[in-house]
Structure formats: structure tokens, C-alpha cells
Amino acid sequence: xxxxxxxxxxxxxxxxxxxxxxxxxxxxxxxxxxxxxxxxxxxxxxxxxxxxxxxxxxxxxxxxxxxxxxxxxxxxxxxxxxxxxxxxxxxxxxxxxxxxxxxxxxxxxxxxxxxxxxxxxxxxxxxxxxxxxxxxxxxxxxxxxxxxxxxxxxxxxxxxxxxxxxxxxxxxxxxxxxxxxxxxxxxxxxxxxxxxxxxxxxxxxxxxxxxxxxxxxxxxxxxxxxxxxxxxxxxxxxxxxxxxxxxxxxxxxxxxxxxxxxxxxxxxxxxxxxxxxxxxxxxxxxxxxxxxxxxxxxxxxxxxxxxxxxxxxxxxxxxxxxxxxxxxxxxxxxxxxxxxxxxxxxxxxxxxxxxxxxxxxxxxxxxxxxxxxxxxxxxxxxxxxxxxxxxxxxxxxxxxxxxxxxxxxxxxxxxxxxxxxxxxxxxxxxxxxxxxxxxxxxxxxxxxxxxxxxxxxxxxxxxxxxxxxxxxxxxxxxxxxxxxxxxxxxxxxxxxxxxxxxxxxxxxxxxxxxxxxxxxxxxxxxxxxxxxxxxxxxxxxxxxxxxxxxxxxxxxxxxxxxxxxxxxxxxxxxxxxxxxxxxxxxxxxxxxxxxxxxxxxxxxxxxxxxxxxxxxxxxxxxxxxxxxxxxxxxxxxxxxxxxxxxxxxxxxxxxxxxxxxxxxxxxxxxxxxxxxxxxxxxxxxxxxxxxxxxxxxxxxxxxxxxxxxxxxxxxxxxxxxxxxxxxxxxxxxxxxxxxxxxxxxxxxxxxxxxxxxxxxxxxxxxxxxxxxxxxxxxxxxxxxxxxxxxxxxxxxxxxxxxxxxxxxxxxxxxxxxxxxxxxxxxxxxxxxxxxxxxxxxxxxxxxxxxxxxxxxxxxxxxxxxxxxxxxxxxxxxxxxxxxxxxxxxxxxxxxxxxxxxxxxxxxxxxxxxxxxxxxxxxxxxxxxxxxxxxxxxxxxxxxxxxxxxxxxxxxxxxxxxxxxxxxxxxxxxxxxxxxxxxxxxxxxxxxxxxxxxxxx
Length: 1000
Hints:
- The protein is α/β, with parallel strands linked by helices.
- It folds into 5 domains: 3-361, no CATH class; 388-536, UDP N-Acetylglucosamine Acyltransferase, domain 1, CATH 2.160.10; 557-629, no CATH class; 645-847, Ribosomal Protein S5, domain 2 (2-Layer Sandwich), CATH 3.30.230.10; 852-998, GHMP kinase, C-terminal domain (Alpha-Beta Plaits).
- The chain has 32 helices and 42 strands.
- Residues 97-105 and 111-128 have low confidence and may be disordered.
């Protein structure tokens, strides 16, 4: 990168930073007035809407007074006449003679028909009466019809897009760049006016500008003479002032006229001129009465700011030559009379030449220039942060796009530029096209075409179509001669919708664009455009693109905390309603739609910072599981109590590999893989469920652990199993899951017991194991209840059916957990438990083929240690699920890795390599800590540390944070040695070894 490029890059950043500071600090020097000129009231309304939008979104300094002034009375008065109109406006505003005077800074004002035309009287010699003293005024002449870029006629070329993102995340426009680039100029002048052309973007460093004197100063940049031949050029005199103006001269002529320096460079006219207060007063003296204003500001004189106001300031200019200068309109007596007065008022002043270097300017002149700038020409400005793709879902590099949704199944030709448009499936756009403000749904657009949509004031639509290289000032369309200039040719059909207008215009193209009786021209569609519809359409598209970008990230399961940054911290009610509406329509029993739905809700929780959307996310997960779980639930009135009493006792389980991969929604989207083992404590199965007959018409539930017991005679009480604080929630869920009582329908307990043949008693307990053990006791207890009930009813139950009934119980109780705990205790031995990706989980249980010798070694070296602390209740499930749904890359990686380790563990055990298994257990422990830092604490770390020299592997049981720990002892180390070490360190605090054995 060259020094010149680096300088411009840093200057650009400096201006942007300074502008951000000005937005937040009104005490910094800034413009007192920013005035935009417009060609007519309709265009002025469009400009005011744009400025109001920026004020609403804190994109403009509120201290500044903004005004948009159309040419008076709808007449074209030229850029010079528009400048005089600006001076009159400021004079009257400052004097407080209009209703505008009461409007606070930050408002947007204009010169509409309802506003006063009253002039402030002034004595000769004191024309402006200090109206301009101490005022910094920025005027941007933007009143053209944009004939050579018709797609910007309605919104104005000044508000055409610039391909970079502003600091607030919004797409920039030429106006935004003006405000940023020129903010530093205000500090480089005491007072006066800076006048700019609205179709030229200057890139420079304001520190190179100094203007505190009288007269004027032209801002010029150095460019090679080869470039200067296509632009206006200043010839510098000996005093450093502008000696003369040379417009579109050949390189030879520029040399002959002394405009080229020794390096072959010329001083380019950028269209930016600074004027002192004295000069402004002199200009205002030309219009300080109604009669004078009418004489100078009219269609006959049509004064040009550049030809009529600047020429008299050149030191080498003469009055005779001034009369011959090419006017903005026609040579008329009115123009000659005005020039005589202007010469007398301005020729006494000089115009200093301020050269800015390094500097650059970008001319937004024609459609062809625009297309080049937005595509292959973009490389020249990437150092400024410009991008070929701004706020679009498309990442295709062969074309440019801004604020547009482009279907992945649309075909856009190389070198095209798409802005403010929808391109749906099947759309084909040829090469080198400009598509602006339209919706395309499967149509084909030929190469080298501009297609631009406008909403008209009557609510209908027109789509204008012409060639990229067409000049609307000429009588040609797509290179073919037509009867009149393209600008006024009524060849475009009007339709009720934008889609209909697209189709009608494309048909007109195929027919050769005949003149239509009810057709409309570029000119008339510009004049009749509904300018109030432009910003809402752009906002709607911006929302659409951001929503689609978010949905693409959701479908790829990207990190949602990163994906939502597309909204730049701002989200409106319309976006929230669209996302909620989309989520509500999705079927949570279809895996793809389920995945989208939960992540839309999660994204909304990120965007709005409201827990209700996270609750909707988790509720959707629970509901999807519940719907699948209860699908086969039904009350069985034929069920009979076949035995007097049934007792079922089950082992607990220890988790080795893959824990958490069984948790929804991960297992639903990826399937789960878990390696665990059934374990007896002190040679006993500690999980017990008892079912027995009792006399009478009651159902009695008991929890031996808590000493609670209750008789139920109301069916509704038994159907309420979702209260986590209910000591009988598990019992009730078991009765529902096994068909003993109905899930929803209402029958009496008396009828239930009559069908059963007696009353029913169901009791549960976990023998001598502390709560929060991490050994899966709650889920295994559910399995014990199901087995006991089915055995009491004399029904056969396959392992798969047993797992499904217990899963059903879990969901009826709204625990939201996985399936590995119950399978761990219900299926004997060491086994690999898996499921495929599906909403309704089908559990597969595969016993491991472990030799007798390996199982014996495992039993000798495997040890459970109670941590002496009960595992505290945490929102752990909510946290892990949230992080997975959000696409947290570390969480996703860990969940995948622990499944892989589970498979490797099985491999090592089946190979008889207990040491290799122990190493994998250590790896899993490290992964568990990455997944949940709360799974360990000081006490747990200290326990593991105290026996570090005695063990080869370590792991928590369950979610950790307390309860039991598990270790693999070194060969030759005994359980007694571990117990002795623990007592030495922890004495009688409850930290101790529990005798256990793996169930074969």
C-alpha cells in the first residue's frame, strides 16, 4: 500500500472518528446550518424524510439546523439561483421573521408554499445585518434530475448508496459521507459557507484546509493532466489564487494555458468552494428586496453557482469574457443583467486555491460509472472499508449487492450490481446489470440492463428499464433510435403491484418498447414518485436480509451470539413479530423445523435480552419430547392387579463416556452415545419400588426416603405430576405412563380401582444413598416403578418398551433430562447406549464384550468416593442446553468429543486395556470441566489431589459439583489405601470410599 493510500485511509478513519465524537459532544465545532437544495418539492420531501430518519436514529448532530430548499415556485433557477435562495432562507431564519425561527436545532425545514415569503428590510450597505456572522454553513447542491442515473432521481443522487457500513451498522450514502468528510472543515473556518456539489465525494484530510480570510477559497486536488481533461481545472496565478477556469480542455491546451505543473499534474475543480461572511453579504445585497430576488432568481436568468459566481473571482477574468461564459440555461437579457450586478459585487474579491494532497474524488455521474464503482472498481477503495457486498445474504464475489435478499437459487451474472431488491428462486440476471428497488420472482433480465422500480403517489408501481450505457438525454433505448429523448418517452407501463410492473415492463422490452397511451416516462415517474415509500421499502429489505442471514446461520447451527450481530444491537418490533410469526408456524415434530424454531427463540432472547424467549426455546424442546413421549399413552381399563405384592430393586449407574450427549436437543439433532455401567453398593441394589394391593377404592403413594405418604381419591390430583416439589410426582407419572390412570380424561378413582380389582399402593425408596449422589437414582427409580407396575399387572415388557415408558415419565414430570440414567440402571453390565437423530428417541443398548479377566481387574481397580457434600441444585441443564442451542463452538466441540471418547473407551475395555480406559477417563474429566466449570470445586479438586499418586483415572458421577466421584486405582493399590489417605486428610467430614461392584 502506497504512502498516499495510507494517508487517505487514516484521514478517512480520522474523519469518521471525529464525526462520532461530534454526535456525542455538541460542544465541538460543527455546522450551524446544513442546507440541501432540491429541484422540486417532491424531491425536497424525499430529502427531508432522509434527514428526519437520520435524526431519529442519532446519525446527525442535533445541534445543527437542517433545511431542504426546492427551487422557488417550482421553477428551475440554476445552482446560482438556489444559492441565493439559501442566503435568503438563512437571513430570514436568523431574523426570526418566519415560523421556522421557532423550530429548534435538529429540525428539518424547507421552503414550501405555506412558508412566508416576507423579506427582512435592510439598509443599503448592511444587506445581511450580521445574519451570517459567526455562522458556519454547509450547502450541498443536490437539485438535479439525475438524468444520467435515473434510478436515483426520486431519492436524489445525494442519497445514493455508498458501499460501506457506518459505525452504527447502517449502509452509508453519499450524504452520510459528505457529513463525515466535511465535519472537520467546520473547525477550520471561523464563519462562512462551504458549497459542495452533491454528486462528488471528496476524500481528503481537513487539516490541510485553512480559511480565515476574506473572499473565497476553492478546494482543489492534484491529478494528472490526462484526468484533468475530463473535468474543470483551475489555473493558479502568482499569488496562489485562482487565475482562471478551464473546462474540459485537451492535455495540449492545458499545457498551453499554463495549468500543468512540472510533474504533469493539474488542479482539479472539486466543486467545493468556501466563502467568507463578507462575500456572503455582498451576494445577499443582490437579493435583499423582493424585486431584486425576483430579478436574479428565475428561470430566465437561471444562474449557475460555478459559471456565474466563481468566474468573477478569478484574477485573470474579464467582464467581456464573463458575458460569454456558457450559462446553465440559455443566453438571455435577464442573465446579462444579472451578470453585470454579480461582477460588480464579486470581482473585488479573490479566490484562494487550497490544494489538498494526497486526496481523491469520486464522481457519481452515470449509471455506467456507478456499475464500475460497485463492481470491479471496488478494489480501489477497499482500504477505506468499502465492500462489494453490504447487508446482503449473498456471498458470491462475481457481482456487487447492497441491502438485497438474493436467493441461493437465483443466478446473477458477473459484473452486475443488485440494490434494494428481492431476487427469489429461479431469477436470472444477465451480466453487467443494475437491479434496483424491485422484486424478481423467476424472471430473466437481459445483460447490460438497468431495472428500477418506483411506487407512484397513486399507490401503483412502475418499473423503468433501459441500457446501462443509455443516455436518457438522447433519443435512444438499448441503442435503438426512438422518437424522442428517453427521459420523456412514455414507454413504461403502470401496474398495481411491483411484481406486475416487472412482468409488464419485461414484456414491453420484448415488444420493442412501443409508446403507450397509459405509459409513463422516466421524467414523469420521477415527478410522480411516492418518495415516502423509499425508506420504508429499504428498511423492510434491510430487515429481510438480516432475518434471512440469521436463518442461514441458524440452519448451519452457527454461533448465534455472533449471528445476531447482523442487527447491530438494534431490533424493531416488526422484526420481532416476523421472527415470532415464523417460529409459531414451524412444526416442532419435524426435525429441521424444530431446530429452526428453538434457535429463532434463542436468537430473540439474545436480541431482546428477555428471558421469555429463552423460556419459549426450552418449552419448545420439552413440548417436542412430550408430544412424542405421550403419543402412545392410553388408559387401560382392562388392567388387573395379578399379584398381592411386587418388589423391584435395581442397581445405580456410573457414567463413563458421552454423558450430556443424551440430553435434548443435542441427541435429537445428532444422536447420543453413552458408555455407562450398572453398579451395586455393598453388594446390594439400592433402588427399590414396591407395588401391592390394598383394600378399598383409594390409591396410596409413599416415599420412604422422605417419610411422606398420602391417599388419593381425586383423579385430578393424581394427574398433576409436573410439580418438582411434589414428593409423589414420580409415582403419579409412573401410573400415567403404565396406563393405570388416564393422562387427561376424567374418570373417578373409584372406577380405576374397580377396574384394577383393588386399591393400589406404590412406594419408593433409595436405600442409604444421599440425595444428589450423581448415580442416576431418580431416573432409575422411575424405571423400578414401571417394572414393578407391569409385573403387578402380569404384562410382558421389552427393554425398548421399558425405556420408552420411563422416558415418557421423565417428560410428564418436565425434568427435561436425557435417557442414559434409567438405561444405566435398567440394563445390566457395561454397555454402549445410543440413539439416532430424531425428535422421538429410540434407544439402542449394546452390551460390551468384556473378558472375565478385564471385568475382574476393573472391579479391583474401580472405586467410588463420596465427596461429603450434597450436589447443589443449579440451572445446569438450562445453561448447557442454552449454550448448545446458541451454537457455542466450545460446547458443540465438547459434546462431539465426549461421544468419540465413549467409543474409544469401549474399544480399550474390549481390548482389555484398563490403563488406556483410565487415560480416556481423565480426558473426559477435562472435557467435562470445559463444558461446565461448576462440575468441580475446591473440595472435589482436593479429594482428587490427595489421592493423585494412588489413581490412574478420575471422573465425577453425574453432573458433579458434589455427590460421588469415581477413580481407577493404580495396579496394586487397594481400596483400603485410598480410604486411609482420605481419612488422614478429611478425617470424619464424610469423605470416604463406598464399596461397590460392577454388575456383570
